[in-house]
Design a protein that fits this description.
Number of helices: 9
Largest sheet: 2 strands, antiparallel
Strand content: under 5%
Order of helices and strands: HHHHEEHHHHH
Helix content: 55-70%
Distance between the termini: 60 Å
Oligomer: single chain
Number of strands: 2
Length: 264
């Protein structure tokens, strides 16, 4: 059993901060390409009369869908299919990456006590991308149960729903679009809370909060800056849009007027 020796190791020692590297540049370039793709699709697919609000919502959900179906899907792939044998105490000095399981003692990912799963043990460019992010959040490199569970929802539920929202916005079916945008935004806020609340409650043992780039850019900007601020704004806009729709419906019903096509 590995638990007798791994408990004495410091996980963070395997993930010391590094200067801005080629992997960092390529990782950020990949995200930038997704943003540009989402913007291009918003210009091509939406009706020309679409408001800037609708254009931004389309762009955001297309960005969301592409990110979930590519980068985050690659995380799941490596989590389930990239692995290394649990090293013996003699092998520890030669271990390149994180030699610790990320599951509770006596609990083994996929019921495999002799294996360590995660992006740490992959060799593809996508694995390297996640290994870079794992320098900010160590859980991105292994099989942390909460992270993997959240990513399963993101890839197989939120990603397809975000793409469906883009279809609804393109076809101007705004009532249905607002419902699913509320669903997605609520899920993203809940997912962020469940991802980081355990860290806050335990002193952030898996987060690198001492490095400027990792803390302010990787953790705050890519999480609070995107998947908190934008979902909150989406819920605010949905609150007003749905409230206005109900008010108009009530007024029209009282006046005996048939409801008109929704405009935003």
């Amino acid at each position: 059993m590995a638990s007798s020796w791994v408990s004495s190791r410091d996980p963070a020692s395997q993930l010391a901060p590094q200067p801005f590297s080629l992997t960092s540049v390529l990782s950020l370039s990949a995200v930038a390409c997704i943003v540009l793709t989402a913007y291009y699709l918003s210009q091509v697919l939406l009706p020309r009369k679409s408001s800037r609000k609708i254009q931004f919502l389309f762009m955001w959900h297309m960005f969301d869908a592409i990110l979930h179906s590519t980068l985050e899907a690659s995380f799941l792939y490596h989590t389930f299919f990239s692995w290394a044998p649990v090293p013996t105490p003699e092998d520890l000095p030669f271990t390149k990456y994180y030699p610790l399981p990320m599951t509770p003692p006596g609990v083994f990912f996929l019921s495999q006590p002799s294996r360590l799963y995660g992006t740490f043990y992959g060799s593809s460019p996508m694995a390297a991308l996640w290994q870079e992010y794992a320098r900010a959040d160590h859980r991105a490199g292994g099989a942390d149960l909460t992270t993997v569970s959240m990513e399963l929802l993101c890839v197989f539920v939120m990603g397809p729903l975000a793409l469906y929202v883009c279809h609804l916005l393109r076809t101007e079916k705004y009532a249905k679009a607002w419902f699913w945008m509320v669903f997605i935004a609520s899920g993203e806020l809940y997912g962020n809370f469940m991802t980081f609340a355990p860290e806050w409650l335990t002193g952030s043992p898996n987060l690198n909060t001492s490095n400027f780039m990792y803390f302010w850019f990787y953790l705050l900007f890519f999480n609070a800056g995107l998947w908190v601020v934008i979902p909150c704004w989406t819920l605010w806009e949905a609150y007003h849009a749905i409230g206005s729709a109900f008010a108009n419906s009530k007024d029209n019903k009282a006046a005996g007027v048939l409801p008109k096509k929704e405009k935003i």
